[in-house]
Amino acid sequence: MNRTETSTGAVASQTRAECAVISLSGVTREYSGHAGTVRALDQATFSIVAGEWVAITGPSGSGKSTLVNLLGCLDRPTTGELTIDGADVSSMAPAELDRFRADKIGFIFQQFHLIPYLTAVENVMLAQYFHSMTDETEARSALDRVGLGARAAHLPSELSGGEQQRVCIARALINNPPILLADEPTGNLDAANQGIVVDLLRGLHNQGHTIVMVTHDPEMAGLASRRIALNHGKVFCHPVGGGPVIRLGR
Ligand SMILES: Nc1ncnc2c1ncn2[C@@H]1O[C@H](COP(=O)(O)OP(=O)(O)O)[C@@H](O)[C@H]1O
Ligand SMILES: [Mg+2]
User: Residue 241 has what pLDDT?
Assistant: First the structure.
């Protein structure tokens, strides 16, 4: 139970499900191909509440990308219910899902995915453009926030890997989404740059951002407040506050 204060000062109790920013119930994703059907995610049932930092781990082929694509609204479940920030996304039409994604999810990718012919500040402004309207002052202050104010006019090729990842983080934050989805955020970085990005993620978590991060790196996973492990498409959640690993779902 979480205890939250209401506007009248009364203390209300909420279950985890009630304050979930992400909630899955029996979510299954199957891929059909010429070789038959693969069940990449099998009856996943869990929730993530606002302010959590969750690490998604698991061996190659266990369903991590499948899960991240669903949480990032890039894909929809074959069956089951997926609720993000109060909205049922399992049944949204593709155009509605595009709009929803721009509003709710900030993506931090291992490969950065910056546009090579746009400067750092223009890359951030592009995310504003897809969301609503551009505002260069705001985009510059997002770069300031990740310590890159002095690099605003640089092209990605003129930035180190760590700096490119910080532009990516500024871009993820610019529309103030409730969820940050990071896929191996330090996977392409050397130790020094990894340290800088880890400090930034720590800072964002301390400010109350919800972070969902896929990682192979046990050290990175150890930074998260909770781990969700995948194996052959099945979800094993480390419960809040420690304790034994339990299988959630049917
Ligand atoms: N588009 C697809 N078509 C068919 N099978 C797929 C597709 N994408 C993933 N799979 C299969 O689903 C399983 C999970 O894949 P994935 O989610 O990419 O795992 P991970 O990211 O953990 O490596 C794997 O067995 C993979 O081969
Ligand atoms: Mg993958």
Answer: 56
CATH number of 4-247: 3.40.50.300
Nearest CA to ligand 1 atom 10: 40
Q: What is the pLDDT of residues 30-45, one digit of tens each?
A: 999 988 999 999 999 9
Distance 64 CA to ligand 2 centre (A): 5
Segment 135-156 mean pLDDT: 96
Please, are residues 103 and 177 in contact by the beta-carbon 8 Å criterion? Answer: yes
**pTM of this structure:** 0.86
